[in-house]
Amino acid sequence: MPVYIIPLIVTLAIQTQVSLVVFTPPILAPQAQFDIGVEAAAVGMVTSLIYLSSVFATLLSGQILNKMGAIRVSQLCILLTSLGMLLMTIPNHLVIGVGAIIIGFGYGPITPASSMILANSVPQNLRGLIFSIKQSGVPLGGAAAGLLVPGLLVAFGWQKAAVIVAFIGIILMASSNFFQKIIDAEKPKFDSADKSDIFTPLKLIFGNSRLKELALSSGIYSGMQMSLGTFLVVLLTESAELSITVAGGALSAAMLGGAFGRLFWGYVSDNFLSPRFVLGILGLIMSISAFAVSLVSPSWPLILVYGLAIIYGASAAGWNGVYLAEVANIVKPQTVAAATGGSLTVTYSGVVIIPMLFWTAYIMTSSYAYPFVMLGVLSLVPGLLFLKNNSSF
């Protein structure tokens, strides 16, 4: 059995769980809004808070990983995301905000930890595919949220549904302890430069033109991805007049499309097209998808809504593995965690800013159509630049 199989399974499971937590609040929002006293669209602020704290946590991840090891850090992250989820069951604006911040502190170091593990065990010619498989945990977590949480909502109410999601994380945290020695035994050493200050990862990114191009584009793509996960259910329940269960199914379809897309695009970038050219194609597809979503109405047949959700998810949630593998390919193995952390700081900044812009556009227009058009324009720019500046082979 290849040495990377166990690390891949463990990192995939952890990524799926923390993503389940992140995607749960948008599904709870349509019901929770009546107890909390704010519109469901305000869940975009929760998403922004999660990723705002993720920015700071990601900057610190290299130093923390060096001291604790990847599995111990991952367990701490699961604990923090579960604690944050529990706090969000309290219908108080301030407590929910604190819960979102705690979730972000848990979410930030997860990807640098998994990249450190996989970069040490996966051969370079398989990184696009293997990193994409691991990153498929993000859409799989979203799909699990779309399938699981609506049923829990109907059966138990939004607060107990959140408690159950948090408890799943506690179980996974305990289970991952069995693999700690196996995975952390091959922990790579960091350069002393990685320990100098928390801004070293950012200096690494912006000191390399290829890494800077990737990071800045990822900020837009990640904002597109999170806006899809945050606002699709609300859009479909309010603008398309679908039930919460049917709308949650569309989100699951989008996330499953993203999971498949990550595998497909990872394979393509390993064998046929350059990673940057693949990222350009994905920018165009997600742009067209966002324009199409802005036109959704109650007259649309359900099969068309679900089909569009799958295509949208395959692009907007399908780029991450190619991106992270390319970051790992550019730098030395001992700086993979620092480079990943620095690039994800820019990535998560996009998730903070763009959902806030989306929500602002919604407040100004009282429509979800214009914000999705805005998303389409934003993702079109890096898509065209990738295609213009990079060879396909």
In short:
Helices cover 80% and strands 0% of the residues. The protein contains 17 helices and no strands. Helix 1 runs antiparallel to helix 8 and helix 1 crosses helix 11.
Account of the protein in words:
With 393 residues, this protein is mostly helical. It has one domain (5-389): Growth Hormone, Chain: A (Up-down Bundle). 80% of the residues lie in helices and 0% in strands. The protein is built from 17 helices and no strands. The protein has helices at residues 5-36, 43-68, 70-87, 93-107, 110-119, 127-135, 137-156, 158-176, 180-184, 200-206, 209-238, 244-271, 275-293, 302-316, 320-330, 336-365, 369-389. α3 packs antiparallel against α4, α3 (70-87) packs antiparallel against α5 and α11 (209-238) packs antiparallel against α15 (320-330). The chain is globular. The model is unreliable at 188-195 (pLDDT under 50).
Question: What is the CATH class designation?
Answer: Mainly Alpha
Number of domains: 1
**What's the helix-strand series?**
HHHHHHHHHHHHHHHHH
The helix tally amounts to 17
Distance between the termini: 31 Å
Average pLDDT for all residues? 80
CATH superfamily, by name, is MFS general substrate transporter like domains
Largest sheet: none
Shape: globular
Low-confidence segments, given as residue ranges, are: 188-195
How are the SSEs placed, and which strands pair?
Blueprint: H1 5-36, H2 43-68, H3 70-87, H4 93-107, H5 110-119, H6 127-135, H7 137-156, H8 158-176, H9 180-184, H10 200-206, H11 209-238, H12 244-271, H13 275-293, H14 302-316, H15 320-330, H16 336-365, H17 369-389
Helix pairs in contact: 1-2, 1-3, 1-4, 1-5, 1-6, 1-7, 1-8, 1-11, 2-3, 2-4, 2-16, 3-4, 3-5, 3-8, 5-6, 5-16, 6-12, 6-15, 7-8, 7-12, 10-16, 11-12, 11-15, 11-16, 11-17, 12-13, 12-14, 13-14, 13-17, 16-17
